Amino acid sequence: MKLLIQSLLKGLAIILPLVITIEIFRWLLQTIESALAPLLQLVLNNDWYYPGMALLSFIFLCTVVGFSARWRGISWLWELPGKILMKIPGASQIYGILQDLMELMSGKNFADESVVLVKLPQSDVELIGIVTKKGGIKDDRMSSLMSDEQLAVFLPMAYNVGGYTIIVPKSCTKSIDMKPAEALQLVLSGGLGKSNASSRS
């Protein structure tokens, strides 16, 4: 009986992440397709429209937006909807959190040494964190709370979409060779994942 239960749990551990990941992607693809399909059918007529064209159009649109955002003369146009949302109570919090999460996962605005080990005071315990701000940055709210020798470090929590942002002296941190997305995956999984990272001095 014990062997049967262990086999069941092992099977669930293998199958459930696959099923959940596939279902999330399937839901996302279906949402994009169903939202853009009527527009394409109106433009192209039903005779020219084929299933999947809406998704391909969405990917093409994202590529064009991302490429054109490299120029300041055009980038303000793509930033305008976000600025409007940031003025709306409620929507600003949701949009801001999603935007920060996407930037965090993509590694945007992070330096090579943004993932650090934070040593707790009077202890040998160290926590994996991601440097989000440095002191001395002009016109930045978080940076204004810190001195030039301090860092704002985000400490994610295992099995939880959350964490703590702490302000620590640079002397309490040690850089490790890991990308922010890797660090998030490693910490959120409680270290049970298969990601490897080597320390550097």
UniProtKB/TrEMBL annotation:
<keyword id="KW-0472">Membrane</keyword>
<feature type="transmembrane region" description="Helical">
    <location>
        <begin position="48"/>
        <end position="69"/>
    </location>
</feature>
<keyword id="KW-0812">Transmembrane</keyword>
<feature type="transmembrane region" description="Helical">
    <location>
        <begin position="7"/>
        <end position="28"/>
    </location>
</feature>
<protein>
    <recommendedName>
        <fullName>DUF502 domain-containing protein</fullName>
    </recommendedName>
</protein>
<dbReference type="InterPro" id="IPR007462">
    <property type="entry name" value="COV1-like"/>
</dbReference>
<dbReference type="Pfam" id="PF04367">
    <property type="entry name" value="DUF502"/>
</dbReference>
<keyword id="KW-1133">Transmembrane helix</keyword>
